[in-house]
Amino acid sequence: MPNAIDRFLEQNLETYLQETMKLCAQPSVSATGEGVRECADLVEQILQKHGLKTQKFEGYGNPVVVGRAKGRSERTLLFYNHYDVQPPEPLELWDSPPFAPQIRDGKLYARGAKDDKGEFMARLAAVDAVRAAHGGELPCGVLFVVEGNEEVGSPGIAKFVQDHLDLLKCDGAIWEEGGIDFEERPGTSLGRRGILAVELEVKTLSRDAHSGNAHILPSAAWRMVRALASLKDENERILIPGFYDQVRPISEEDLELLRRLPDLEPYLRETFGVRGFVNNLQGFELRKAVFNPTCNIQGITTGYQGPGNKTVIPAKASAKLDFRLVPDQDPTDILKKLRVHLDAEGFTDVRITYTDYMFPARSDPKHPLVRLAAQAGEEVYGKPYQLIPLTGGSSPVYAFAGPLGIPVIDAGVGFGITNRTHAPNENIRLQDFHNAARHIARILDGFADLWSGEGSS
Amino acid sequence: MPNAIDRFLEQNLETYLQETMKLCAQPSVSATGEGVRECADLVEQILQKHGLKTQKFEGYGNPVVVGRAKGRSERTLLFYNHYDVQPPEPLELWDSPPFAPQIRDGKLYARGAKDDKGEFMARLAAVDAVRAAHGGELPCGVLFVVEGNEEVGSPGIAKFVQDHLDLLKCDGAIWEEGGIDFEERPGTSLGRRGILAVELEVKTLSRDAHSGNAHILPSAAWRMVRALASLKDENERILIPGFYDQVRPISEEDLELLRRLPDLEPYLRETFGVRGFVNNLQGFELRKAVFNPTCNIQGITTGYQGPGNKTVIPAKASAKLDFRLVPDQDPTDILKKLRVHLDAEGFTDVRITYTDYMFPARSDPKHPLVRLAAQAGEEVYGKPYQLIPLTGGSSPVYAFAGPLGIPVIDAGVGFGITNRTHAPNENIRLQDFHNAARHIARILDGFADLWSGEGSS
């Protein structure tokens, strides 16, 4: 009932934007803990307000909030979202404060406006619209899982799913975001890279020393530079022995899907002001590169970082790293190999603290949910639907897809970089919020019917 | 007149300590500018209070304060000191606030207590003591040069000296500190290493990006790690072509002076909790290593440094470096060679900003001032006097010794590491303050007599 859905959303958009701003005004930085529990409470209240029965689960890190509503059919569609956000730093680069949401130029600016509070609210708008269009009853059940640790790698979510397989029984899932790319072309990712995030630390002195002693006293900064330099060669090849052992060659089917995807180059050049890409990649090679696992330095901390100079030998150094892993790499295996590598290179004094891991995951491109999302997407956006074999980021798709035996697709506000996801001035275009709600509502509307022919077969 | 001098200092010590605390309570961080001008005014007032005529010179960075008093003889002894201090960070490691001086356990704790406000005040105590012992008249002239940019490399002092050769005409100089080593053995350095301090900066993106793009977007953090790794091999050999061209081989005379010096190893192991030294140096090799120029990383700044992790590719990275240079290396030559090296290694995008340079310097071990300092030092400390051919740190000795044609010696509170110079909990032992004043007063007392036989020759 697309017409009734669209009418409802058109008439009520403002209400949902106001509610999104209220949610974004509540800080919920999982990296520091700021405001996280208050935000979980607020999410529970919002779910209740929209007619869902809620439960809040403790013991998996920050609370997991679950909301459910029954539908006419037994079929259930799961929505995965999260209420936590990335740290807002560097604060000086925001044009308006990160937790004082502001609408200007057709966009809502706030930390979390896109990732993932705006996405979450667009889904609740879709649920309300479908319910209204069906005379107050949903055609299928809906199940919201809203967690509070996604930005620190969802360390508890896999166990949460394993512990609640009955509660979470469903027939398909829509992941936290996505649904259109940076040129508003609809599509879905069929896979996510895994991640292993670690912090390396080394200490060479009991305290910083005067650099007039640099000929004799060992420097933690130099030690860290050398340990890092041992991890990767200048051609981006990761030098940890066995790192690539579980990497699958890219299949012909995936290469074909990649070929149909648009050229990223002009967009990336403009967005990030880059002169050249990693390894001077161009054109199709840029798209293929998502099948390369990576070793990224998130940040390095050592020595004096203020203005001017300070003649010290740093006693301590640390570096935060993330490895993005491709099918079938295993983050626990890579962690072990990293330790073996550092030891073999003589860096037994470099401590590794694991901070985050997720496995890579893939979904079946032939599932009927994918077709439904494609049809709805083409209707809303008026463009062909894309199938993306693997995206560069990581998410706990693996924790749901495997144990629940369901396909997981994207449908939401789309490509995060234009929204400055994880960066200052994060925002969501009001038009994108509206379209995401229309797209999701159409999927909800048709979801139960995907199985309507089953009884006769 | 050592007895009268010692009596005066014994009776008046408390007054000078109180005045030192007042001076230390005034912040004067040249790296940030905090309190520097206020401190210059305070130093001028203090010099006047102790009977010196003052002048304050602008146009050489922070003000240079000069104080002079005539003596019975035309001979003049110059004291070089500085009123600026190192940044007090990390603040959390101080047991009492850096600019709230506190005496406990026989020590005065404050940023600058040792380097260089305590040293400066001990000299004023010596001047007063000698004047009192000689019935109100100094036996030789004294000339204080107290600058405010030493901790940022004294960028203006060489030009200041060149511009005021007449004003600064003198017959010898006592440098800012030193005079005893970490086991209270008296001695003087006969040379200082030079320094070249630079900041390297690189930018690869217009803003930080999500690390899910690490397979395509270039990382400033990795770029900096690779640029740094190109500077030095694992055996501490600096890889900049031509870096060692002007390094003199260690002379037999210097080797002999080095052989007479005490073993640093136990002291360094205890003070810095080190397990092993650079290049596994031991014993005599540790002493010889001061003749090796160094490339030190003062600090690296890139990416996310807060708690937890943040999945970003850093857009920018910077590193502060200092090179300690030995005779006859030239910091301006090394700066050029660094640029050539980075370009040759493909790092044309790594910007170099020079922040500080000083030339290496040496003084003549056979000058009579050295003998006088030795005799006075043995009397005060009761131990043989050491001649140190080269010390690891840098100071603008070169700016005075050359143009003024004078020997420059150390006489003061001694080895900085035990005083936590440049580190949290900087302090000065009250006993060391007292002894430094006694030592310097004896040098002042005998200085004019060094030339008393000249008229007859």
TrEMBL record, chains A, B:
Keyword list, A-Z: Hydrolase, Metal-binding, Protease
Molecular function in Gene Ontology: metal ion binding; peptidase activity; succinyl-diaminopimelate desuccinylase activity
InterPro entries xrefs: Cyt/Met_Dipeptidase, Peptidase_M20, Peptidase_M20_dimer
Top-level EC class as recorded in UniProt: hydrolase
One Pfam assignment: Peptidase_M20
Start and end residues of each Peptidase M20 dimerisation domain: 191-346
GO biological process: lysine biosynthetic process via diaminopimelate; proteolysis
Keyword Membrane: no
Domain of life from the UniProt record: Bacteria
EC number(s) recorded for this UniProt protein: 3.5.1.18
GO CC term (a single one): cytosol
NCBIfam families attached to this UniProt entry: PRK06446.1
Protein name in the entry: Succinyl-diaminopimelate desuccinylase
Origin organism lineage: Bacteria, Thermotogati, Deinococcota, Deinococci, Thermales
